[in-house]
Amino acid sequence: MPCWHVVLTVFIREYALQLLAFTPAEIDLSTAFHAHHIPSLVLLSILIAILAAFASFNHVELIRKQERRKSSMVWLALGAVAMGSGVWAMHFIGMLSYSLPVPVTYHSGITLLSVLPAIMAGFVTLQVMSMGDFTWRRVLLGGVLMGAGIGVMHYLGMAAMVLPADRLYRPGLFLASIVVAVLLATLALGVRPLLQNFLRQRLALNLASSVLMGLAIASMHYVAMHATVFMPLQNGYNAYQGHVLDSQALVTIAVAAAVFIVLISMVVVAMRYRLLGAEQEQQAAIAEAKLIEARFYSIAERVPGVVYEFTLSPQGQMSIPYISEAVKDVYGVSAAQVIADAELLMACVHPKNVNNVLEAMNQSASTLEPWQIEFRIVRHGSEQVRWVLGNATPTREADGAVTWSGVIADITEQKRHEQTVHHLAFYDALTELPNRRMTLSLLMDHMQQAERSGQFGAVLFIDLDNFKRLNDTQGHSTGDELLRQVGQRLLRLAPKSSVVGRQSSDEFVLVLGQQGASSDAAHKSTGMHAERILHALSQPYDLHGNDYACALSIGACVFQQQSFDAAELLKRADIAMHVAKRSGGNKWRIFDPAMQAQLQRRYEIEQAMPTALACDEFELYFQPKVMQPKVIQPKVMQPEGAAQVIYGAEALIRWRHPDFGMVSPADFIPLAESNGFIVPLGTWVLRTACQTLQQWQQDEHLKGLQLAVNVSPRQFYQPDFVHRVEQLLQKFPEAAQQLTIELTESLVLEDIEEAIRRMAALRQLGVRLSLDDFGTGFSSLSYLSQMAFDEVKIDQHFVRAMSSSESGRELIIIEAIVQLADKLDMDVIAEGVESDAERVALLSKGCFAFQGYYFSKPLPKQDFVSFVATHSGT
């Protein structure tokens, strides 16, 4: 018969009826055995109970982390054994701490059997705790089962006691022990969710729960012990005495159980911490992965473009595992649609770019080099065309597929900006024509084409004459309108293969190709084009309702072989244009090397002027002014050699260069006017003239002679011009009454009010004022009355024309000028007199003062002194 069956039979027959014997009311408890507890063993028993609870609670985490049920049940069973063994060991050590006056042994079978309820109680406890979802109903059920199991274990263990005494239980304390076990077990189970709000560390939480559970187990035991009464027996022992365990054996078993618990606890704690570390690492990895994923998605959604992952299988099938929602804004389809059908993206590629995209993709798949290409797409559901930039890095998968990860950026605005920047960089904003930079590039292309084809080409440099005057008088808006119309007219006139560009403010360029295979043919064809364009562009323009006839100058240059660059070619055409302009304007000229030589000389002259002034290379020449005394009958012809008086001279500047020789004023004066050198040069002329007048006052023949000096508009309108004249007259005081400043009509008309103010200031200094070239301006009579001139000079144009005119109009004008000046109390002098007939004719009209080659050419200073000395007696 099996051992367990024998034990069970004996237990039922011998002890079942005595297991829960209670004390009757009439019993005399004074005869009962008195016992006491050994404190050290009591404390040890409580520690073992706490240790058992701690081991079992650590199993909870291991049970929860098991994904497979078998593994979970294994850890649940181990935890139950650890807890049950610990409760059992605590009970029997507590029993050993209970010292009775009689010998006590323990029935071995019942002692071992008593561990089963404890293990079952541990199993129930761990099962409740490992479920995770704490509810008070479940906690209460677990507490009841736990308390019941502990109670059964305790009272079954009490039944194993073999001693000469009856074992009776006080009903009140017996019930109290059960209640205490259930309440404290329920509290130990229910306190965990409450403590979780205060104890974040699992170790601290398990320790607190273990202490409560250990106290629950110990409290039940010691309350139950106080409920037990041992009454002496008269005859023998109270139970079967075979197979008993003495105290030493029981201690050994209890200690072994405690060691087992400690070992289990250490293993469990070690595994628990290892599991906790792995769990923390896993949680950290998961959290980091989620963070990275969240960041990726966040970045992907904020990236100015479509973030995507694209896979091409070895069979050529396309798939898109991921694509950001930005695809909706760019392609017009949602991310879900694209993931479901990758062909939607290829369907949006512009037909003209499909082959390029596929070739770039196949190339990238073959070499695993980054895929980068700009292409156009047609937005899904519309005809809107957008530019995108595809940029991705490929990787080859194990199955041979290639996966690209990258971004598709919408660069439509960038392309638009690039076009705008390109247009601003290479095209004129006003006329929409190519600017200088673009024109040079296109001209270089034409030059290369001409060299390859053997055909001559030509470039025409077109400049509008008097454009500044239009801007100044009619405003810049009118000038801009003229430039736009000129550009449009040029485009209509230009052949299809030509280039029309705007160089600067009022300069345009026309590049012509196919002008002939020979130089003569090219020059002839270019001249025909220039003549046709000159005629067409000279036709009136409608500027804000007003007709405007535009004069222009055209310079051309033919080319074939590339012996110089485009800039040099334009320069040569520009030179030819300036030659046309100096020829009177509204003309065209074709470049020849002599023009460049002339320009080079002009440049050398311009560069040499400052040095010439510093080295005293300039000098004054003097042309005499002659006066013939008035006669009673002015219209009577005066004989040649009649009394004439030299009353003054005009100072004329000359330049004697050590290399160039005598440089004509016609060469350097216009250059000085254009570059501003006329101001220091004019100052030198005034100072030299005043110094000369001061010297003349010491010569008997020269004393009292007037000296006229020409002043340019740029010099006259210098802010300190009057002050400079005043300083010179202070330095040379004797020159004040003999100095005459000659002003032209164009100078006065430039700023009439300012001119009047400055003239008045000069007259206060004693300076005489002469109006040069009178009659050639636009409003002579309207302003003459406002100006305080001392002298009027009849322009040589009228003097030369009066002898060849059949109508005699010039004489009439001269007579009118003389009479007008006489009425205004002004002296009159005619310049450019070259014959006696002109002198006599002028005398007949009342003009008695002359200047010209008939009397003398301009003379150097010493020659002029001699000339005056010779004619002083005439």
TrEMBL record:
Domain GGDEF as annotated: residue spans: 455-593
Residues annotated as domain MHYT: 37-231
Keywords linked to the UniProt accession: Membrane, Transmembrane, Transmembrane helix
Transmembrane segments: 38-60, 72-94, 106-126, 138-156, 168-191, 203-229, 249-271
One of the Pfam families matching this protein, by short name: EAL
Domain PAC span(s) in chain numbering: 371-423
First and last residue of the signal peptide: none
Domain called EAL: residue spans: 602-872
Classification via InterPro entries: Biofilm_reg_signaling (IPR052155), EAL_dom (IPR001633), EAL_sf (IPR035919), GGDEF_dom (IPR000160), MHYT_dom (IPR005330), Nucleotide_cyclase (IPR029787), PAC (IPR001610), PAS (IPR000014)
Residues covered by the PAS domain: 310-368
CDD domains tied to this protein: EAL, GGDEF, PAS
Source species, domain of life: Bacteria
Protein's UniProt name: Bifunctional diguanylate cyclase/phosphodiesterase
Organism of derivation: Aliidiomarina maris
